[in-house]
Amino acid sequence: MGSITARKGADGSVSYRAAIRINKKGYPAYSESKTFHSKKVAENWLKKREVEIQENPDILLGKEQLIDLTLSDAIDKYLDEVGSEYGRTKRYSLLLIKKLPIARNIITKIHSIHLAEHVALRRRGVPNLGLDPIATSTQQHELLHIRGVLSHASVMWGMEVDLSSFDKATAQLRKTRQISSSKVRDRLPTNEELIALTKLFAERWKLNKYGTKYPMHLIIWFAIFSCRREAELTRLWLQDYDSYHSSWKVHDLKNPNGSKGNHKSFDVLEPCKTIIELLLDNEVRSRMLRLGYDEQLLLPLNPKSIGKEFREACKILGIEDLHFHDLRHEGCTRLAEQSFTIPEIQKVSLHDSWGSLQRYVSVKSRRNVIQLEEVLRLIDET
């Protein structure tokens, strides 16, 4: 009645899809499937689900009882139905919430006290799960993710979830500053920081220290000149690069309304073209491809490892409070300083509106910003 199929993702990770198909006399054809990161977990779910169906045949008629659905079970059901429509960040956040005490509550009985306890717990940290205290803005994001599941349960599953009380509770938490919106970040790397990072990464690559396969000296400048997000860098397919029209299509671009199917092309400017040519160099590609990722990608690398390499380098150099995402901010700011109009910047950054672009464009006027010629000199490519 059930089967498990292993699937390999573009990043090399393996997932397991458990599927149930039933053709029973007197009932319509029934099928159900879920994807797991562990084969053992997939097998356990399959066994549990088969028992549930045997004990409650009405499930085959679509009359499954959801009265006692916990938040943890609701998250599973929600991700199974619509999880593919959202990005990695939201999925990761929901899977993390499943591990916390609030997930054990039945969703029709989640009240303000449960939200307050959850916020207090996350503010203190959860040592047994290795979770440090989180910022008030992250708290707000978690509650919004929970609300998304509850709203889906109310509308799509016909469950009597009290969203009004949920909204009143979050409004009070916001009023008492226990949760808040994200602060506008305007941190830009200095010339000295960019030079130090470029030199360190170029030296590592040239000497092949630690067998490095990540050309970070090129990646950081590609991120700046393309204004791309960290995760987008490793989702750029070579077939989508139109060198004649100087554009590159990005698949599943991040969007508040869902990233699935949101494909857009960004303008590839001359400095970005130069870095692309260096990334396509045979030696550079051969070293990257040793990691085993798809050779049709510009950067056949793990996006998490790119972030890790960057953070470790900042730590070595004593650079504080600089995130890889700040390179996107740097790229957008450079375009503004070159007198690009807002629509012209949007053609590169792919922000949907000025409101979302504004936080990335600094109003500071800088002098002697490091240019491509010096970058090439630093990495010995003049």
What do you see in this structure?
The protein folds into three domains: 63 residues; 118 residues, DNA polymerase, domain 1 (Orthogonal Bundle), CATH 1.10.150; 188 residues, Intergrase catalytic core (hpI Integrase, Chain A, Orthogonal Bundle). The model has no long low-confidence stretch (mean pLDDT 86). 48% of the residues lie in helices and 9% in strands. The strands form two sheets. A three-stranded antiparallel sheet has the order 1-2-3, with helices on one face. The protein starts with a strand and ends with a helix. With 382 residues, the chain is mainly alpha-helical. The chain is globular, with a radius of gyration of 24 Å. It comes from Acinetobacter baumannii 625974. InterPro entries: DNA_brk_join_enz (IPR011010), Integrase-like_cat_sf (IPR013762), Integrase_catalytic (IPR002104). GO terms for molecular function: DNA binding. This is Phage integrase family protein. Pfam families: Phage_integrase.
Secondary structure topology:
Elements: E1 2-8, E2 14-22, E3 30-36, H1 39-55, H2 71-82, H3 88-97, H4 112-124, H5 136-156, H6 163-175, H7 191-207, H8 216-226, H9 230-233, E4 241-242, E5 247-250, E6 264-267, H10 270-279, H11 282-289, H12 303-317, H13 326-337, H14 342-349, H15 354-358, H16 372-378
Antiparallel strand pairs: 1-2, 2-3, 4-5, 5-6
Helix pairs in contact: 2-3, 2-5, 5-6, 7-8, 8-10, 8-13, 13-14
Pfam families: Phage_integrase
Protein name: Phage integrase family protein
Keywords: DNA recombination
